[in-house]
Specification:
This protein is mostly beta strands and 107 residues long. The chain is built from one helix and six strands; from the N terminus they run E-E-H-E-E-E-E.
C-alpha cells in the first residue's frame, strides 16, 4: 500500500487508521453497517509480507497492509451482497488519505 506521496506506508509513517463499512443496495443506496479503528502496528508491515508469511495473501503477491474487518460489519447474510470498505489513513505528516474496496459476499 502506498501513501499519498507514493511511497510505501510504514508503521512510523502513520498515526491512526479507521474504517467504515457500507452495504450497497441494488439501487446504489449505501447503509453504514460498521465503523472502527485498526491498530497500526497490527495491520501495517514495514517489510512486505507474502503467502509464506500470511496465508491470506495470494501466492506470488505481497502486501504491507493486512486487515480483518469484523464480521459484525456484515450483519445481513446473503450471497452476492455488496459492501464498500473505506479505510482512512492518518499520516504522521500531511493530509489523510483514503483507500476503498467494494466486496461481494460469497456465503
Amino acid at each position: 500500500m502506498k501513501g499519498a506521496a507514493g511511497a510505501n506506508i510504514t508503521q512510523a509513517s502513520l498515526t491512526a487508521i479507521s474504517y467504515e463499512v457500507n452495504r450497497i443496495a441494488d439501487g446504489g443506496t449505501e447503509t453504514e453497517t460498521g465503523t472502527g479503528t485498526l491498530t497500526v502496528s497490527s495491520v501495517v508491515f514495514d517489510t512486505a509480507q507474502d503467502s509464506d508469511d500470511d496465508p491470506r495473501i495470494p501466492s506470488g503477491q505481497t502486501a504491507n497492509f493486512i486487515a480483518v474487518i469484523p464480521a459484525s460489519c456484515f450483519p445481513v447474510a446473503g450471497r452476492g451482497l455488496r459492501h464498500r470498505i473505506t479505510v482512512t489513513f492518518d499520516p504522521a505528516s500531511g493530509e489523510d488519505f483514503v483507500q476503498a474496496w467494494v466486496v461481494t459476499l460469497e456465503g
